[in-house]
C-alpha cells in the first residue's frame, strides 16, 4: 500500500468514526431530553456499529469509498434515520446508497415489515404472486370495503409461467383484523418505473415474481405505518421501492455520484477538494447537522435528510 493510499484510508476511517460518534451523541441527547424513544429491544450502538462496518466496504460506481465521496452531512443523516426508525443494517432492513455525492438511507421491504409490526400492530403478513394460468378470484366487502381472496389455485405449470398477472399481500393485525392488498402487474410496473435509475435492476429482470411480492408488501405496510401513532418516524416515500443487494448494486452503477463533489469538511479535504457539483438540489430545512454558512453555500444539503429533526 502506497503512502498516499494509506493516508487516504486513514482519513476515511477517522471520518467514519467521527461521524458515528457524533450521531450516537446526538441520539443520546435526544433520549435524555425525552425527544426520542427507541424500542426496548433496540440498540442504537449495535446499529451504528453494523452501519460503520457496512459503510467501510461500500463504494460508489467509480469504486471510491462512500466515506470519501459522500458528504459528512448526508452520511450523518443517513445514520440518524436508521436509528430513528429503529432498524438494523446488519439484518438488511436498510441499505446505504450513494447518489451524486450524497448518501441515502433506503428502507428494505423487511424494514417496512419491522416498522409495521413495531408501530402499527401488524401480527403477520404474507404475499403471493398471481401468475398466468392461476385460478384467482377476489371480492370486496360492500360494508367494510375490505378485499377478500375467494380462492387462489396454482399448478406447477402456472408457477413456472413467465407472465405475472399481479400480486397480493394478506395481513392480520393484533386486534384480529384481516385485510388484503392487491396490485395488478400494471400497477406494479408503474411502481417500478418510479425507481431511481435507468431501467430495471437484474433482480427485477431475473426474479420479477419475488420483486412483485416485495412491492405489494411495501404498499400494505406503508398504509399501516402512516396511520399509526408513530407514522412521523416513517419517511414520506410514495415509490414502493424495495432494495435487494442486487438492486443496490445496479442503482450504484447507474446513478452513484454522477457529478463528483468535494467532501464538505475542511479537515477531510485530502482528495478532489476543489471539484464542484454541477447538479443543483433543493436546500433542506433539516438543521440537525447544519454547517457554517460559508461551507453551506458551496455544498447544498441533502433533500432527503431525517424529517423528524
The total number of structural domains is 2
Report the end-to-end length measured between terminal Cα atoms. Answer: 41 Å
General form: flat
Strand fraction equals 15-25%
Element-level helix/strand string: HHHHEEHEEEHEEHHHHH
Q: Which strand order does the major sheet show?
A: 3-6-7
Instruction: Determine the number of helices (DSSP H or I, runs of at least 4 residues).
Output: 11
Biggest pleated sheet: 3 strands, antiparallel
Unreliable stretches: 231-240, 258-309
**Computed structural class:** alpha+beta
Total strands: the figure is: 7
Layout of helices and strands, plus pairs?
Blueprint: H1 3-32, H2 44-56, H3 66-69, H4 72-85, E1 94-99, E2 102-107, H5 109-119, E3 122-131, E4 135-140, E5 147-153, H6 156-159, E6 164-173, E7 178-184, H7 185-193, H8 202-206, H9 208-226, H10 245-255, H11 293-296
Antiparallel strand pairs: 1-2, 3-6, 4-5, 6-7
Report on the structure:
This protein folds into two domains: about 5-110 and about 255-295, no CATH class; about 110-240, no CATH class. α1 (about 5-30) crosses α4 (about 70-85). By secondary structure, it is an alpha+beta fold. The strands form three sheets. Strands 3-6-7 form a three-stranded antiparallel sheet. It has helices at about 5-30, 45-55, 65-70, 70-85, 110-120, 155-160, 185-195, 200-205, 210-225, 245-255, 295; strands spanning about 95-100, 100-105, 120-130, 135-140, 145-155, 165-175, 180-185.
